[in-house]
Amino acid sequence: MTRFSVVHTTRYVYEASVTSSYGQASLLPRSTPVQECVGSELRIDPAASDRRERLDLYGNRLVYFSIDRPHRSLEIEASSQVEVVPDGQRPPRPGLDAPVADAIAAVEGMTGDVRVDVAPFRFESPRLGRHRGTSDLAAELWEPTATVGEALARLGSLIHERFAFDPQATTVTSTLDDLFRQEAGVCQDFAHLAVAVVRAWGLPARYVSGYLETDPPPGQPRLQGADVSHAWASVYLPGTGWVDLDPTNDQFANDRYVTVGWGRDYGDVPPLTGVIFTSGGTRSLEVSVDVRRVDAVSSGA
After folding, report:
1. 3-state helix, strand, coil in the chain (%, to 5)
2. DSSP codes, 53-115
3. Is residue 61 within 8 Å of residue 229, measured between CB atoms?
4. 9 bridge partner residues
5. DSSP character at residue 32
6. Predicted confidence (pLDDT) per residue in 3-16, tens digit
7. pTM score over 0.90
8. What SS3 state is found at 292?
């Protein structure tokens, strides 16, 4: 196992005193088949008068908090220790070698709990409804005799090549219309597009929120989105499970990724949401992310 230290800091400075605020944070990593969150802490300044942690419908860790005294700034820092299974120790993914048409047929034939679990990720969601650009892209890439691995790789490469990475092009409220019009966006936009295309094919896909290792190991490239929260797509393949695709960096996710949570789209797992009561607005917002490899953890006795 490889251990990462993850520190995500968000600081708001307000134009006028905030009398009270209510927020929800999705900043604490969850455990998955390839990672375990071995420790986490959420620090809120000023201290919250009330805070509670719960699991949402998809098993993500959410922290609700409220502050009932006046403040001109708010800082939220999430610190976590996460152990990740190295690539060489992960189970094989035979579903990537199946023809796309066979994978779709297998999804249609699912029954029981698995069918129920993946159902929310098969169809439209609040931010990913029917869209002409998505339909055209899905048709352009459709090759039923191609393997799932080939189809997903082509999808990631097409998004990476056709849309420029530009943090100024879109915002967290941007839609697929904005992405196609600007022909540029960020990881959130590219993940949304990948999810929408895969669903158009007939396979379940979900939006994943998380992080990338900030400083790569020697000889490995630095990846786009390593200094902020990252996002990618995940596709369900019967007999294999979920396989993660990062179109921002044109690759399948590997052991340099740390997952926080997942949902139908960004609206299910925004890092922070909330309401403030004030006569002014937010003067500044600063976000910093640091993901560092701490050490290797033996998985043996």
Report:
1. 25, 40, 35
2. EEE-TTS-EEEEEEE-S-EEEEEEEEEEEEEE--GGGSPP-GGGGSBHHHHHHHHHT--HHHH
3. no
4. 77, 288
5. B
6. 999 999 999 999 99
7. yes
8. strand
